[in-house]
Design goal:
1402 residues, alpha+beta, nine-stranded mixed sheet, five-stranded antiparallel sheet, 50 helices, globular, Lipoxygenase
Length: 1402
């Protein structure tokens, strides 16, 4: 076991430090750092503000390395010990003498008191001023970690310039750390596989003794028969200071291979030995702080308590400096003549030297007469850069005797200042261990052979002897060792060497011949011989996800196939493809096929191993071909390839591999290295092209479930005309402009050849196999759907047994759904067979599973929990426009009155019923014109969107709706308040001129209820447009073509495909489900939302205004405003006809770009929000900025020349296909793709819509729409005029009239059930800044950018949380006001109304 301490590198090379390249700027920062140091130390207030200390840390971290060194020198000199003060105090102290006259009898002695005061002052003055800074910094969050990193810089600076002042500063920091990090302050934690991913990644990164090669390796080290413990400090959460790895065995291990690889762990109940095989210190800044000493003893005691059957505690430790000690001594024998040797002692015994010479040949050097010494032969063997000798059993046997003897001597006899020279030995001997056994070939790795000739040593911790051994070693330098080790030193173990045959020509041995003049020549000879004759063995570790067997057929297949024939191993065939071309075929070199064997089984995965034997000239593997000869599919997660000189190669697969019965050709998986088409290695070009061809298909035939073909089709599968004529629906795409969906190839209906046959709800729409939900998602989604059915079905059934079927009788009926639930034993007797007989068995079981309450109860929306009557308040209405479910509709009012651009034959008049005088009653003394100029008036305008559909909607049973406009005013308290609502009806037989009625807030009772009804109708428009356009169309439907084009045109090797991959996850599957159950004829949206069967027309109307170049958040905010279409505006537009086209476009840009934001070059995002307290926009811009920064960083790795974008054939084909095949009905709004900045904007827009936009409009659905009074999905009554018969009903029972306007019980509970499902985060959710596929790239530059993006997202979360606690931001803070958390990046599972998943996955 070795204690590994990471070296403090030059900070300028650190990936976590943002460095300033501008020298002058760095100097200015240095001055600020110096001033902040001074303020921290010299200000009268001892408690320096946290903000200033944070600023000091940030500014220091921005310094380049040269200026960091200067800062450390300033800290050590200007803020060191005040030497003048010390000198004065010493002189003063010496001047004090015992003056007899000054004594005051038996009373106080003034001289003695003065001496004590001077001693106190002297002690204080000897403390450097910098200690004050360190103590203040240590008291701040993150301060200790900063100081640890500061000392790492200090140690690096000392290597460059060993100044006394810097050494003194280091001593002070080291002393402080020894106090702050005492064992009493540290927390011992057992690291397990269930710990946070960030901690596990640090374990992998910090383990330097026996590096962790992959995820499988990590799981093994944390699994059965293994333990890992770490010391943590509360001030550095999630950051291990030192950790130790332990193997539980039944004997003392003699090789690291046995611990790490070869020997499977025994049952923990049978373990009698604990082997400490690695201890790693993680912080370079804690070098010299002995934490390992305390850790190993504490872990020993803990294991004794938990596993009393373990009686033996031993290490398996490396000897990292043995050859560094031995090789210089051997090298001296290579000189001519004994007089030139710096080391003259003969190291080899006579019989050892003879055996070595006999083995390798006794050759004379051409320029010498004397025989070559055994030591020089040994030097050339051991000094080779590639130690091949370890592969020869015969040569290894010859070297074993002298090397074991010399190593024992090195460990026992070679000392420094009376203690063991070897640092690892010194560490364990100081801890009280004894040296138990020296193990030959304990570490056969290249590193082990080069450091210690493969030897390892066991240090034994006998509990009863630890203190005795410790004292003997510390006080007298005595090393306790077993007789076996002592015999080695004395040369007591002699081997019968006479029986060994000659090894002169053994493969892998350094042949010492007359022609050899140096160790370099010998190394080359070995390399040449090995390259000509020795094949390379590569080990593949394959991780396959377990799949629960839910179907009888699956179980039957598994029983026949997996258990009888092969436990999923031999029938999986792998073949490597090289990046190098085979001259004979012109294609990439192929290896021989290999099969797998099972090596371990985890909770969710099974791991297999296979071996490839390839020739050295095979080249670097770039792809793996996989064939599945089983009858069932399996989910392949990763493949790791070990054994290459260049290191581990990872293949991030995450794909279903089907049986060759279905998928005849081999599956292709590329390594995680990204290539542009032009840089594709020659050996991979053919399979890159053929794989894309496979995914594109040929556009024919009906798709099969196992296929991976991506193609386009129109939305012609929403209707079901073969079942009923009234279920026919128009085709969206083509005549009705719309995005395209995934082609399934199903046959046309009999009734309409343009429509595709509709599948039953229980069947699955085709999506390419890898687009389907993974098992965790499938189980969670299915469970949620079943619960939604119960929540929807049971209230609907029960209501038909009540006095007023399907209606809410009172507002309390609505509240009961959340607070009490539907108690079945109360509502219906259990023996009422009429009810129970019509409830399906599956649902009866789910109902009966709730033994406690026997109630169907909905989760309580936080809005209702905070303020039951929030829905009645105008301030809450206005707040939800900015921070609610659909915050994308508000526009800045630019002209009054608002007008329409529609045909008067539809809407009647183009004008508005709003009156300025009525509005001005609510504008705090401003006129409408003044309020517009002050940017205080806003509008939500659904007039033109709904007006063409209103007559058709209102003809449907149970539907009565208006096309609405709402004007809102930002008052002096910065609250957005509705000040006017216009309800409009189109031209009809009853209303030849249409109808426009304006309403305003009033204080009288009748006016109050009418105002509530007006807001209900606005909310109904708002809810429908949100669901059909803002949510479904703009995210789900518009993104699906991106998914299809990415898979058809971008190879999995393409960097853009790798970047987009997490943002396209699950979208096609959730869209296919929506087409079956939500937006289809008779689906939930038709039944329960305002447009009814006209949802497609409403969605298509929204698509008419859709432009790709407005999907980015900044562009959307700049765009949103009310168009200038007053008569004066039309006159101005007519003037444009006389101007040039370019000038017209510039003028229009000025007019049309002043929406909810204005351009502002001084702002970080280049724009200023008109409404500062606009939570969606303010938080969204943070997310947008982080995404754009990440995309820019990522693309810079791959696109480094001006023409790299235009010459990228796959990228150009991808963008062209999105425009011409994915969105062929949209000719305008597509940006060009000519340079890197164009690509940054395009990708950021796609990723924003998939993540932030979708999160903002989806995960608050149950929060806001789950309470029908707050955001009803439809309205069933118009507001009567005074002469209408219903007006009297409104006056007599306004609450009842409101309830009759709202959705009925079936509609309301259906919406609640569905939104409960759609608002739920599932356990396998992948949030912004996270990636499920940990090994998706191996490029350090990309990983660095990814880490920075993750940190940036964490900063976004902190900023949003601070905003939510700011009392000045009243649209997200206040009594009864839910905090705006929809754009908080992370979330746990369930309904949380927060969290930004990477993709549209629900």
């Amino acid at each position: 076991m070795k204690q590994s301490i990471p070296r403090a590198e030059n900070p300028s090379a650190s990936k976590n430090v943002s460095l300033i390249e501008d020298t002058e700027l760095s100097k200015r920062i240095l001055k600020r750092v110096q001033k902040l140091m001074h303020d921290a130390i010299h200000l009268q207030n001892p408690d320096m503000p946290d903000k200033s200390l944070v600023q000091l840390r940030e500014e220091y971290e921005r310094l380049d390395w040269d200026n960091r060194q200067r800062a450390l020198k300033i800290l050590s000199t200007e803020f060191g010990v005040d030497k003048k003060r010390v000198k004065d105090l010493i002189q003063h102290y010496l001047s004090l003498h015992d003056d007899e006259k000054s004594k005051a009898g038996d009373g106080e002695n003034p001289l003695e008191a003065a001496q004590f005061r001077t001693e106190r002052d002297l002690r204080a003055s000897l403390m450097p001023l910098s200690v004050r800074l360190f103590e203040q910094m240590n008291g701040q969050a993150g301060g200790l970690k900063f100081l640890v990193d500061l000392r790492a810089d200090l140690l690096s600076a000392l290597r460059d310039d060993n100044l006394p002042a810097l050494r003194a500063l280091d001593l002070e920091l080291r002393a402080l750390f020894s106090t702050w990090l005492s064992p009493a302050c540290l927390e011992l934690h057992q690291v397990t596989w269930n710990d946070a991913a960030s901690l596990l990644e640090k374990i992998v990164r910090y383990e330097a003794v026996h590096p962790i090669s992959n995820l499988y390796d990590l799981k093994r080290r944390l699994g059965i028969g293994r333990r890992c413990f770490g010391y943590f400090h509360p001030a550095m959460p999630g950051e291990p200071l030192v950790f130790i790895e332990v193997a539980l065995t039944d004997t003392i291990s003699n090789s690291i291979q046995e611990v790490l690889f070869d020997k499977p762990p025994i049952s923990e109940e049978d373990a009698t030995h604990a082997i400490f095989y690695a201890i790693s210190s993680t912080q370079a800044g804690l070098s010299g702080i002995d934490l390992g000493n305390f850790l190993i003893k504490r872990v020993l005691r803990l294991l004794q308590q938990d596993m009393p059957q373990i009686k033996t505690f031993s290490t398996l430790s490396p000897i990292p400096f043995f050859l560094k000690w031995l090789l210089p001594k051997l090298a001296s024998f290579c000189f001519e003549g004994n007089e030139q040797r710096t080391f003259k002692e003969k190291l080899l015994l006579a019989h050892e030297e003879k055996a070595l010479k006999d083995a390798c040949g006794n050759y004379n050097s051409p320029d010498r007469d004397d025989d070559t010494s055994g030591e020089s032969i040994m030097y050339r063997i051991l000094g080779a850069s590639d130690p091949q000798w370890g592969e020869s059993e015969q040569l290894s046997a010859v070297l074993k005797v002298p090397l074991m003897r010399l190593c024992a001597r090195y460990l026992l006899l070679e000392k420094k200042r009376g203690k063991a020279l070897d640092p690892v030995a010194n560490f364990h001997l100081r801890n009280g261990a004894s040296m138990e056994r020296l193990n030959w070939m304990g570490n056969k790795s290249k590193k082990g052979l080069k450091e210690s000739a493969g030897m390892m040593v066991n240090y034994l911790y006998r509990v009863e002897s630890i203190e005795e051994n410790n004292q003997a070693y510390i006080t007298r330098g005595i090393i306790r060792a077993s007789p076996k080790v002592e015999e080695l030193v004395a040369g007591g173990q002699q081997s019968a060497l006479s029986n060994l045959p000659s090894l002169r020509l053994t493969r892998g041995v350094v042949p010492v011949k007359n022609t050899l003049k140096s160790a370099d020549v010998a190394e080359q000879a070995v390399a040449d011989r090995v390259s000509r004759s020795k094949p390379v063995t590569l080990r593949a570790i394959v991780t396959i996800k377990k799949r629960p067997d839910n179907k009888v057929t699956d179980i039957f297949r598994k029983g026949l196939d997996f258990f009888v024939q092969d436990p999923l191993g031999e029938d999986i065939v792998l073949q490597l493809v090289s990046t190098e071309v085979d001259p004979s075929s012109g294609l990439g070199r192929r290896s021989k096929n290999t099969t797998l064997r099972k090596v371990s089984t985890g909770e969710h995965t099974v791991e297999y191993a296979g071996e490839f034997i390839i020739e050295d000239q095979f080249g670097k593997p770039g792809a793996i071909l996989v064939a599945n000869r089983h009858k069932a599919e399996f989910f392949l997660e990763t493949i790791s390839l070990q054994g290459l000189k260049t290191g581990l190669i990872s293949f991030s697969c995450y794909s279903w591999v089907h049986s060759q019965e279905n998928e005849v050709s081999q599956r292709v998986f590329f390594s995680n290295e990204a290539y542009l088409p032009s840089s594709t290695p020659r050996g991979l070009k053919d399979i890159r092209a053929s794989e894309l061809k496979t995914l594109q298909g040929d556009g024919t035939d009906m798709r099969k479930p196992w296929e991976r073909i991506y193609d386009y089709d129109v939305y012609n599968d929403l209707g079901n005309p073969d079942k009923e004529k009234k279920l026919a629906r128009p085709v969206a795409g083509g005549a009705v402009p719309y995005p395209r969906r995934c082609r399934t190839g199903r046959p046309p209906t009999k009734s309409d050849p343009r429509a595709e046959v509709r599948l039953a709800v229980t069947s699955k729409n085709y999506v390419p196999r890898d687009e389907d939900f993974e098992q965790v998602k499938t189980e969670a989604f299915s469970s949620g759907r079943l619960r939604a059915i119960v929540h929807r079905l049971v209230p609907t059934i029960i209501t038909h047994f009540t006095a007023t079927p399907d209606e809410f009788d009172t507002l309390t009926d609505i509240d009961r759904l959340f607070y009490e639930g539907i108690r079945l034993q109360t509502e219906l007797a259990e023996n009422d067979r009429t009810f129970w007989d019509i409830v399906p068995e599956q649902i009866r079981q789910l109902i009966n599973a709730d033994k406690i309450s026997n109630a169907i109860k909905y989760p309580l929306p936080p809005l209702l929990a905070k303020d039951k009557y929030a829905w009645t308040r105008d301030s809450e209405f206005g707040r939800q426009v900015l921070a609610g479910l659909n915050p994308l509709m508000i526009e800045r009012l630019k002209a009054f009155p608002p007008t329409s651009s529609m045909d008067t034959g539809i809407c009647g008049t183009l004008g508005s019923a709003f009156e300025a005088a009525e509005l001005e009653k609510h504008l705090e003394g401003l006129t409408v014109e003044e309020a517009i100029k002050a940017e205080k008036l806003f509008i939500i305008d659904y007039h033109d969107v709904f007006m063409p559909l209103i007559n058709r909607i209102n003809s449907l049973k149970g539907r009565k709706n208006y096309a609405t406009r709402t004007i809102l005013y930002l008052d002096s308290a910065n609250l957005l308040m509705p000040v006017g609502i216009e309800l409009c009806l189109p031209v009809s037989k009853d209303k030849p001129n249409g109808s426009k009625r304006a309403f305003y807030p009033t204080k009288d009772a009748t006016g109050f209820w009418i105002w509530q009804l007006c807001k209900t109708h606005v909310r109904s428009n708002h809810s429908a447009y949100h669901q059909v356009v803002s949510h479904w169309l703009q995210t789900h439907a518009c993104i699906e073509p991106y998914v299809i084009a990415t898979n058809r045109q971008l190879s999995a090797m393409h960097p853009v495909a790798k970047l987009l991959d997490p943002h396209l996850r699950y979208t096609m599957q959730i869209n296919a489900t929506a087409r079956q159950t939500l937006i289809s004829a008779g689906g939930v949206i038709e039944q329960c939302f305002t447009p009814g069967k006209f949802i497609l027309e409403l969605s298509a109307a929204g698509y008419e205004k859709w432009r790709f170049d407005k999907q980015g958040l900044p562009a959307d905010l700049l765009e949103r405003q009310v168009s200038l279409q007053t008569p004066l505006s039309l006159l101005v537009l007519s003037f444009f006809h006389s101007l040039s086209r370019d000038l017209v476009l510039k003028l229009l840009l000025v007019i049309l770009s002043r929406g909810m934001a204005v351009e502002d070059k001084n702002s970080p995002d280049g724009l200023r929000l008109v409404l500062e307290d606009y939570p969606y926009a303010a938080d969204g811009l943070l997310v947008w900025s982080a995404l754009k920064s990440w995309v820019t960083s990522y693309l810079s790795v791959y696109y480094d020349s001006p023409d790299s974008i235009t010459s990228d054939t796959e990228l150009q084909a991808w963008w062209n296909e999105i425009k011409t095949k994915g969105h062929p009905d949209k000719a305008e709004g597509w940006p060009s793709l000519n340079n890197k900045q164009d690509l940054v904007e395009i990708l950021t827009s796609i990723m924003w819509v998939a993540s932030g936009h979708h999160a903002a409009v989806n995960f608050g659905q149950f929060l806001y729409s789950g309470y029908v009074l707050n955001l009803p999905s439809l309205t069933r009554k118009l507001i009567p005029e005074k002469d209408d018969p219903e007006y009297k009903e409104l006056l007599q029972n306004p609450q009842g009239f409101l309830l009759a306007t709202l959705p009925n019980q079936t509609q309301a509970t259906t919406v609640m059930a569905v939104l409960e499902l759609l608002s739920t985060h599932h356990p396998d959710e992948e949030y912004l800044g996270q990636r499920v596929q940990k090994y998706w790239t191996g490029d350090e530059r990309v990983l660095e950018g990814s880490n920075e993006f993750e940190e940036r997202i964490a900063e976004v979360q902190e900023i949003i949380e601070k905003r939510n606690n700011d009392p000045k931001l009243m649209h997200r803070h206040g009594a009864g006001v839910p905090a705006y958390e929809l754009l908080l990046p992370t979330s746990g599972p369930g309904i949380t109304a927060r969290g930004i998943p990477n993709s549209v996955s629900i």
